[in-house]
Specification:
This protein has a single domain, classed as 2-Layer Sandwich (Alpha-Beta Plaits). The chain is 23% helix and 32% strand. Strands 3-4-2-6 form a 4-stranded antiparallel sheet. A two-stranded antiparallel sheet has the order 1-5. β3 and β4 form a beta hairpin.
C-alpha cells in the first residue's frame, strides 16, 4: 500500500461504547449503523492514514475498548 492512504476500519461495539470508538476518529470519517435490536452498533471509519505503523497504533487504541470486535 502507498502512504498516505485512506484506510477502512470496521468495528462492532455495544451501543454504550459508541463515544469511545468514535472518539478515535474525526467525526466526518465515521459512519455508524445500529443493530436491529439496538444493543450493538457497527462503526466504519475511513481516515487518511500516513503509515502502517499509524494503522497498528489505531487498532491498539481501539482494542482497549471493552467488548469491541474489530472486523
Amino acid at each position: 500500500m502507498d502512504w498516505p492512504s485512506v484506510y477502512m476500519f470496521k468495528f462492532i461495539v455495544p451501543i454504550e461504547q459508541i463515544t469511545a470508538v468514535t472518539g478515535l476518529f474525526e467525526k466526518s470519517d465515521v459512519i455508524t449503523k445500529v443493530s436491529k435490536k439496538g444493543t450493538y452498533i457497527s462503526v466504519t471509519a475511513k481516515p487518511l492514514m500516513y503509515s502502517s505503523e499509524k494503522v497498528i497504533e489505531k487498532y491498539k487504541q481501539a482494542l482497549q475498548i471493552k467488548d469491541l470486535v474489530a472486523l
